[in-house]
Write a structure and sequence with these properties.
Layout (H helix, E strand, L loop, with lengths): L1 H13 L1 H21 L14 H12 L9 E7 L9 H14 L5 E4 L14 E8 L8 H16 L3 E6 L11 H17 L2 H29 L3 H31 L4 H28 L7 H32 L15 H7 L5 H11 L1 H16 L7 E2 L11 H13 L7 E6 L6 H13 L4 E4 L3 E2 L5 E8 L6 H21 L2 E5 L1 H35 L3 H26 L15 E2 L2 H29 L4 H28 L7 H33 L8 H6 L8 H21 L1
Parallel strand pairs: 5-11
Antiparallel strand pairs: 1-3, 1-4, 2-3, 6-9, 6-10, 7-9, 8-9
Family: Belongs to the resistance-nodulation-cell division (RND) (TC 2.A.6) family. MmpL subfamily.
Membrane topology: Multi-pass membrane protein
Keywords: Cell membrane, Membrane, Transmembrane, Transmembrane helix
Length: about 750
């Protein structure tokens, strides 16, 4: 591995014009593809294998034209204080508004509140439901504008009017903090390298890699049904790893220059050594992201594969374009420790001979390993405590800020009709195999009415064939409550009895039931996903480190990081701690996909730092240093760079906290805090403490396994053999001349 990458690095350095041309051509091609591709609609959301999805599919076939997945708007009217919505003027305004709502080109139906009995008991609140033929993300701007203008006209007539539902669903915005994150990364790179040119290389290559990745996703979005969240996630992870991978190779290049090597040779060795770590670090991230397909939720699979593709591009760019750009930079990228005009070179030169911060910290940990280990574990354990109160769910209008019309409509409906009205359940009765379909419909309706927690059950609404009917059930609890989830399970249990008596199938669907099934599917997939991802990465790390205990320690450290990060997410987004600082206007349940998503991404990123830091220790140990000294050597060369890489990754992820999309905001915060915990507590404190306690045992590997494993040569032993061969050839030539 090291020898191959060494040759690749030298080739890219020599043929830099060709390499640069290839990447620029790929960026141009991807950009043209993105610009010419048709505008992508909303990504379809489906959960194969769940009851809610089966019911949706059944509705599509039995109720053609129903547009079960079409957008819905609930226009809620409230009469002025002391008046009723049925008063003459108010009723006329509502009727006029309903007529205007039905004029839209994409509208399939509008319900009249007075005909549908959609008026509250006290007569002050009513609502009209508007159904569209396309989803909220596919809805034309003209339809959304018409909806807003119609509501505004009703407000002008004296009514309080708010619009809920997904018809006003907006495209998420990331905000200006994303740019701030990149700016922070640039500052950290300048401080690390003391040179604008050296600092600019990782930023440039990361932006090119992300540009290619995101443009490709945009070009394929319509054909592959990719949503906006997919490209945002790819951008988030691609930027972070792209900068980090380039940073490690540029740092190693400067270190090789400091040892007196020629620039082409230094570039080859940087790619051969640090590049090997980049390859395996990238592989762990790709495994973790692609492994999301185990969950069998198409949206999550697409997000993971797209992000993994961007990571793969980042690895390839780091291995090829970085040495090419180093060739262009020439002497503008100086050896490590040389004077810097930006940061005061004289002072840097005087400090060069003194132990750096990484050396001093590693020496301290080696002397006090048990105390450091206990302090780190206890600290992360305390941070993880809030995770014990984790509540999972999916965001609805109730989690929107109170300043939005969707949230105000949600509150008005709760006030007029009860909290469960915002999460109605749709029960689908399939009586195609039943001898008495009508009797089956009635039996299901009567059984549901007797269940605890039910407020209203609408009469069965059969299709034209008379073999399938829908029944709407209004719970007495809000959509995200445990009581509503219990009611869904109770209806499904009753459905099993109905099936036995009438041969009719009972399926529960609707947004609330879909969310419940989604959460359950993710929970069921968590253990298999952990086993697959951690298992594959564990095997990969055994090959890299040729050790059993080091990969085991890496996996256990990751579990500490992810639990502590989940605890922080719960504290901020569920409990409300520091919510104002994070721009969280409304607390609520943690998104269902957050735990499994964090497990995947954080594991991949955690292994990045494990590989970068510990391979340097392994390299020192293989070259003859004692275990304790190898730890210090690893920190001497790697601590500063790993610290810079972690700060950059934290800055990039934190930049997405400003997104208007709650999922992106939560993911950005969760990944940022997870990287902080993993890089600065697990990898920089717990890892050296454990290695110090283990001593030589850390690098133990059974002989039979050592013989069976392939030698990937991450430590660069092949390069040493290459040096020896060159020396022997030089000696032979010298003898020949004599």
């Amino acid at each position: 591995m090291a020898t191959f990458l060494y040759k690749l690095g030298r080739l890219a350095f020599r043929r830099r014009h060709f390499v640069a041309l290839i990447w620029v051509a790929l960026l141009t091609l991807a950009g043209v593809g993105a610009a010419s591709a048709p505008t992508a609609g909303a990504s379809s959301f489906s959960i194969p294998g769940t009851e809610a999805q089966k019911a949706f599919d059944l509705l599509e076939s039995r109720f053609p034209g129903m547009s079960a997945d079409g957008a819905t708007a609930r226009v809620v009217f409230k009469a002025p204080s002391g008046e009723k919505i049925s008063d003459k003027d108010n009723k006329a305004t509502v009727k006029k508004t309903v007529k205007a709502l039905g004029d839209g080109s994409e509208v399939t139906s509008v319900t009249d509140p007075f005909k549908a009995k959609a008026v509250s008991k006290d007569g002050s609140i009513a609502y009209a439901q508007v159904k569209y033929e396309v989803s909220g993300m596919e809805l034309k701007d003209s339809s959304k504008d018409a909806l807003k203008e119609t509501a505004q006209e009703a407000r002008a007539a004296g009514l309080t009017v708010e619009v809920g539902g997904d018809a006003l669903q907006a495209t998420p915005e990331t905000g200006s903090t994303e740019v701030i994150g990149i700016a922070v990364a640039a500052v950290v790179l300048v401080i690390t390298f003391g040179s604008l040119i050296a600092a600019g290389l990782p930023l440039l290559t990361a932006l090119i890699g992300v540009g290619i990745g995101v443009s490709t996703i945009t070009a394929l979005a319509n054909a592959l049904d990719l949503g906006t969240t997919t490209s945002t996630l790819a951008m988030m992870i691609g930027l972070a790893v792209g900068i980090d991978y380039a940073l490690f190779i540029v740092s190693r290049y400067r270190a090789e220059l400091a040892e007196g090597r020629e620039r082409e040779e230094a570039a080859g060795r940087a790619v051969g050594t640090a590049g090997s770590a980049v390859v395996f670090a990238g592989l762990t991230v790709v495994i973790a992201l692609v492994g999301l397909s185990v969950v069998n939720i198409p949206m999550l699979t697409k997000m993971g594969v797209a992000a993994a593709g961007t990571v793969a591009i980042a690895v390839l760019i780091a291995l090829t374009m970085i040495p090419a750009l180093l060739g262009y930079a020439g002497r503008k990228v100086q050896p490590a420790g040389k004077k810097s005009k930006l940061l005061g070179g004289g002072r840097a030169a005087r400090k060069a001979s003194k132990p750096n911060m990484g050396t001093r910290w590693a020496s301290f940990v080696v002397r006090r390993p048990l105390a450091v280990l206990l302090l780190g574990v206890v600290g992360l354990g305390a941070a993880a405590i809030p995770a014990t109160s984790l509540e999972l769910g999916l965001p609805d209008d109730g989690s929107q800020p109170t300043s939005t019309t969707q949230r105000r409509a949600y509150d008005l409906l709760s006030e007029g009709f009860g909290p469960g009205f915002n999460g109605p359940l749709m029960v689908v009765v399939d009586a195609k195999e039943s001898d008495a379909p009508k009797a089956a419909f009635t039996k299901v309706s009567d059984e549901i009415k007797d269940l605890k927690g039910v407020v209203t059950v609408t009469p069965p609404a059969p299709n034209k064939a008379g073999d399938t009917a829908t029944i709407t059930v209004i719970p007495d609890s809000k959509p995200s409550s445990v009581k509503t989830e219990d009611l869904v399970h109770a209806i499904r249990d009753e459905g099993a009895d109905v099936k036995a008596d009438t041969d009719a199938k009972v399926l529960v669907t609707g947004t609330t039931a879909m969310n419940i099934d989604f959460s359950q599917k993710l929970n069921d997939a968590l253990i298999p996903y952990l086993a697959l991802v951690v298992g594959l990465a564990f095997l990969l790390l055994i090959v890299v480190f040729r050790s059993i205990l080091v990969p085991l320690k890496a996996a256990l450290g990751f579990l500490l990081s992810v639990m502590a990060a989940l605890g922080a997410v719960v504290a901020v987004f569920q409990w409300g701690w520091l919510s104002g600082l994070m721009g969280v206007e409304e607390t609520g349940p943690i998104m269902s996909m957050m735990p499994i998503f964090m497990v995947g991404v954080v594991f991949g990123l955690a292994m990045d730092y494990e590989v970068f830091l510990v391979t340097r220790m392994r390299e020192a140990y293989v070259h003859g240093e004692k275990p304790s000294q190898a730890i210090v050597t690893g920190f001497k060369h790697g601590a500063r760079v790993v610290t810079a890489a972690a700060v950059i990754m934290i800055a990039v992820f934190s930049g997405f906290i400003g997104s208007s999309e709650s999922m992106i905001k939560m993911i950005g915060f969760g990944l940022a805090i997870a990287v902080f915990f993993d890089a600065f507590i697990v990898r920089m404190a717990i890892v050296p403490a454990v290695l110090a306690l283990l001593g030589k045992k850390a690098w133990w590997l059974p002989k039979w396994l050592d013989r069976a494993l392939p030698n990937v040569d991450v430590e660069g032993e092949g390069l040493r053999a290459l040096d020896k061969k060159r020396l022997d050839e030089d000696d032979d030539r010298e003898l020949a001349r004599v």
